Amino acid sequence: MNRLSGKVALISGSTSGMGAEEAKLFAIEGAKVVVTGISKEQGLKVVDEINSRGGESLFIKLDVSSEDDWIAAIQATQKSFGKLNILINNAGVIERHSLNSTTVLTWKRVMEINSMGAFLGCKTAMPVLLKAGLGSIVNIASISGMVGVGYPAYNASKGAIRALTKIVAMEYAQMGIRVNCINPGSIETPMFDTAETEVAAQRVGRIPMGRVGQPIDVAFGALFLASDESSFITGTELVIDGGLTAC
After folding, report:
1. What pLDDT is recorded for position 191?
2. Whole-number pLDDT of residue 200
């Protein structure tokens, strides 16, 4: 308890899945949480759950591919909570197409939401994080950005997030802002549920720990990287995949 006491966290894509789990866990640990996403209905459900348990949170609609939305979200966070200490770039989409069937529009959509969304989050939040004195950014990438299995647009977008993490971490290392990323494997979220059943079963069969991950598994990793417990960690990657990439 209270590992994030006194801190304010904004989590993109936190209306469901990993982001929602992160929001609820962060609130339990004492943070004031800004829940963001496209669906106001889903976002308010997360906020209501947090607030009903004694936490403090609010919902802000955010299309992470829109710079104007990011600017508005950061401003609203400052107005409501006075500061920002933690940014979790969690929002993402997947398009399951081979190279041959990936259209330019598909490629652009995945890149705009996944990699550009993380870039805009880092860029617009940075002045506010710096003003707070110490801050932590956690970008949610994927093991798909590490290995040659998956789908071109998605893998490339997650590889871009890994590279973005390292360069931003180096740029702000002496300014009190830590930047790290998490590379989840197969996690049981609405995105995972839409996967083809046969492909999903094959993935589970290859995981050494014998199960898919749960959103809370990633949330605990994000909590560690967001908290002061990781005060000497920046520019690194935390792999949460049940041992899959160790094979």
Report:
1. 67
2. 60
pLDDT computed for residue 190 by the predictor: 74
Report whether 151 contacts 98 (CB < 8 A): yes
Q: What pTM, to 2 d.p., does this model score?
A: 0.95
**Residue numbers of the chain with a pLDDT score lower than 70:** 191-203
- The reply to whether 154 belongs to the active site is yes
How far is Cα 32 from Cα 4, in angstroms, rounded to an integer?
A: 9
**Which residue from 2, 17, 10 is spatially nearest to 191, judged by alpha carbons?**
17
Give the tens place of pLDDT for each residue, 43-99: 999 999 999 999 999 999 999 999 999 999 999 999 999 999 999 999 999 999 999
User: Looking at domain 8-185+215-236, does it have CATH number 3.40.50.720?
Assistant: yes
Q: Which amino acid is at 60?
A: I
**Residues 189/101, Cβ–Cβ less than 8 Å:** no
Contacts of 77 (CB under 8 A, 6+ apart): 8, 10, 34, 60, 84, 128
Question: CA 189, CA 30: separation in Å to the nearest integer?
Answer: 25
Catalytic hit among 70, 81, 119, 154: 154
CB 215 within 8 A of CB 246: no
Query: H or E stretch including 240?
Result: strand 237-240
Residue 195: count other Cβ atoms within 10 Å of its Cβ.
Answer: 14
